[in-house]
Write the structure tokens for this entry.
Amino acid sequence: MSGSAGSGGATGSARKRLMKEEDMTKVEFETSEEVDVTPTFDTMGLREDLLRGIYAYGFEKPSAIQQRAIKQIIKGRDVIAQSQSGTGKTATFSISVLQCLDIQVRETQALILAPTRELAVQIQKGLLALGDYMNVQCHACIGGTNVGEDIRKLDYGQHVVAGTPGRVFDMIRRRSLRTRAIKMLVLDEADEMLNKGFKEQIYDVYRYLPPATQVVLISATLPHEILEMTNKFMTDPIRILVKRDELTLEGIKQFFVAVEREEWKFDTLCDLYDTLTITQAVIFCNTKRKVDWLTEKMREANFTVSSMHGDMPQKERESIMKEFRSGTSRVLISTDVWARGLDVPQVSLIINYDLPNNRELYIHRIGRSGRYGRKGVAINFVKNDDIRILRDIEQYYSTQIDEMPMNGECGP
């Protein structure tokens, strides 16, 4: 919802006081009082076909920002969310955008601006996946691609356009991207967009939007320029602050087992099986195919394991998770879909059958949130060509990963 800068006398002057540069360090950003927490997707009042898409995507429980922001955005409020990546921010606005669409109307109803082409494409893919059962049309409008293709796609009709400010403005100017039906503008990673010099283009795009357009702004930091922008673009915005749950490797003993070849990993795992079942263990593989293969191989060797990945039907995943949480099943083989937010207190052993593809995933797999501070053990199976990755992880987290003692004594 637009509003001229400083709308409303008293609030306008109060805002301007906030804007004084020297005060900026003192501005404490807190979540607005009227923000309720909605703990499940089912209680958010979302359309049925969207809920199906959310669960099929692999989401079970909304993250902190999703619990607070989705309902406010759906209500039509302007929202400023201070949030970093890794908090579920992209799905927050994607779910909200999809909920607000009229699929029967083949016109652009939501516009999402992002600082990089990669992020815009990632947002587009996420929207298409979450909106899989809705028949949603979504296009990524980014520089460095064929303009003719953009024009063709936009002429066909797109419910949502995600893009970088320069190309989006170009398409609006060419009248290929029509703005008359736009109800919502999302500015993702707004601080990054300003850092990249997109300020003028964002303002240019905004001038073409209908006066009542709802604005959602996501930013990890809130510098002076961002607050200036929110003053110009937003009416009485709701503020939501979400701190990332800092994961830590404290209290986690980390080991590696050198395996010369991929085939040796399986034998090593079988040798460790008795250690695994003392408490509960999660074994991570990098692909769904590997999860299925390893599960089958373990069962053939008469070991009891359960497994889970994103391709399994929601109901099946829920029942596997339930069994694992209750302790009925003790060894779970999984992909990274379950590294984030998988919190089972009894798990004190993590095995990386495959080292993760990037170092952020390492801490999501084995880290513990500081609130719980539980002890644990992580064992990494390392082939010769993985040594470099292991050393990189050690350096990145300033941690030590020792070779596992041969007697297998690696208790927490």
